Structures are given as C-alpha cells and as structure tokens.
Amino acid sequence: MARLAREHDGVVFAARVDFARESELLDPMLRALRDSGKPFVMTSGTSCLSIDTPQGEWNQQSFAEDDPFDSQLWTRVRMESERLVRASAGTGVRGMVVRPPMIWGNGGGNGQVPWIFQAVPKAGAACYLGHGLNLYTNVHVEDLARVYALALEKGTAGALYHAVAGEVCWRTIAEAVAAVMGCDARSIDHDEMCDLWGKLDAPYRFAVSSRSRAIATVRDLGWAPRHLDLVDDILNGSYRERFGRAGKEREGHVA
Questions:
Q1: HSE (CB half, 13 Å, CA atoms) of 155?
Q2: How far is residue 40 from each of residues 6, 82, 227, measured CA to CA in Å?
Q3: Distance between alpha carbon 93 and the CA centroid of its chain, in Å?
Q4: pLDDT band for position 248 (50/70/90)?
Q5: Helix H or strand E encompassing 97
Q6: What is the mean pLDDT of the segment spanning 153-172?
Q7: Which are the contacts of 244, defined by CB distance < 8 A and separation ≥ 6?
Q8: pLDDT at residue number 255
C-alpha cells in the first residue's frame, strides 16, 4: 500500500475495514507520502455524527464540518483515523477527510434505500422504525464523486469536507417505496427492524439521527450538488426502474 501511494499522483482511501484496523492501514501510506505535497483523501462518514433515536423520533441537531460533537463509543476509533489523516498536513501531505452520508442514485446506494425495497416481500410492507421521523442526510452518488474530484484538485491540507446535499425522513422514504411496490408503509419496532436488516447493521442505519451540513465543502471547493430529489428518484427514476417490476408483480399477485 505504501509503495502504491508513492507511485501515484494522489490517493483516495475508500477501503471498508474494521474501524479498529483503519489507522494501521493509513499510517504507512501517510508516512510514504511525507513531504510530497500529494493529496490523500480518506473516506469517513457522517455516521460519526449519529444520535440515538430508538423510537424513530425527530432530532433537530445538525452539524457542520468542525462543529463540536460528543461522538459515540463505536465511532471514536474512526474519529482518531480522521485526526491522523488531517494531522498529516504538518508532514507535507495534503491529507483531507470526506464524510459521505447516506448515498443514493442509480437504483443503489450504501444500503438503506435498497434494503427497504428488498424487505417488502418478507415484511409485507415498506417499513420504518417507530415514528419514522429520524433521518440521515443524503447525497447522490454522482454528486459525491464530484466532491472527491474537487478535493483532489484543490482541497486544503488538513480539511474535513461533508458531502451532504438533502434530507428526507425514513417514513417519507418508506411511503415512496410503498407506492412503487404496491404495498402499505408501516411502523415497526426495534426487534422487527433487527430481524429485517440485521442486529448489527440496523441500529446504526435506521435507529439514529445523522444530520449534517456541507458548509466548508460548498465554500472552499465550490461544490454545487445537482441531484436533490431522492423521493422523485424512488417514485419515477432509477429505483422504480430497478424495483418497479417486482412491485407490479406483487400488485398482480395480490389482486
């Protein structure tokens, strides 16, 4: 990894590894790039800013890049990795951190929206936890790619950039999924949530509020996200294209 870092003009670190091992991978690459001035962009995530919402309740707190935040125990190791990368600015590396939120677009993403679709056959409905008012700030995958390109091109050493563009609560997302799938949307409790989406993944994906703002990203990189309507993409765009046939088959079966 260190050799590859030296041989290239810049590095985007997007490996999915145990948070506890992340620094072990980052440190030798950052050492290899000392005094090179090359960009090194670490992928983190706005899950670092999660606030427990066990009943799917609304939480008004939203955080810009360097707002103070009392991180949860499970995210503190990830925050240490962020600090390691940002501190590399003092050793001649243009180290930066990008925090993506929930990613959507092209019928996919980093989990949650496809999972709600895929759980419909088992649950008989498009589901959300409790009140369904909690949310992850979100970004379209193509707008996210633009953040990385801009960071590599002109990002500031030591900077943290939020790649966030929109907000939609889980209940609204589930209701849009239900419209595509020809089913109801319904509230579920914690146990059913874990049964549908896994007791390890579900709590930090669906039982938290993670709201953030891209103040530095817009100001310093000139980023202007173009894809802002997740609900329309579910109802009329890439998600209907991917999952709509299953919805029509379901409607025919129910009829």
A1: 33
A2: 11, 12, 26
A3: 26
A4: low
A5: strand 94-99
A6: 98
A7: 180
A8: 46
State pTM to two decimals: 0.93
Q: What is the dihedral of CA 53, 56, 59, 65, to 10 degrees?
A: 70
Tell me the residue type at 126. A
Just give the CATH number of 2-239: 3.40.50.720
Contact 135, 211 (CB under 8 A): yes
Secondary structure of residue 12 in the 3-state scheme: strand
In this structure, are strands 137-140 and 102-105 parallel, antiparallel, or unpaired? parallel
What is the length of the chain? 255
166: three-class secondary structure by DSSP:
strand
Question: Measured at the alpha carbon of residue 121, what is the angle toward residues 120 and 126, in degrees to the nearest 5?
Answer: 15
DSSP 20-34: HHHHHHHHHHHHHTT
pLDDT tens digits for range 146-156: 999 999 999 99
Does residue 245 carry a pLDDT above 90? Answer: no
Q: How many CA atoms lie within 13 A of 53 on its CB side?
A: 27
pLDDT in tens, 122-151: 999 999 999 999 999 999 999 999 999 999
Query: How far, in Å, CA of 111 to CA of 106, rounded?
Result: 13
C-alpha span between 15 and 205 (Å, rounded): 19
Q: Give me the amino acid identity at 132.
A: G
**Residue 194 to residue 59: CA distance in whole angstroms:** 22
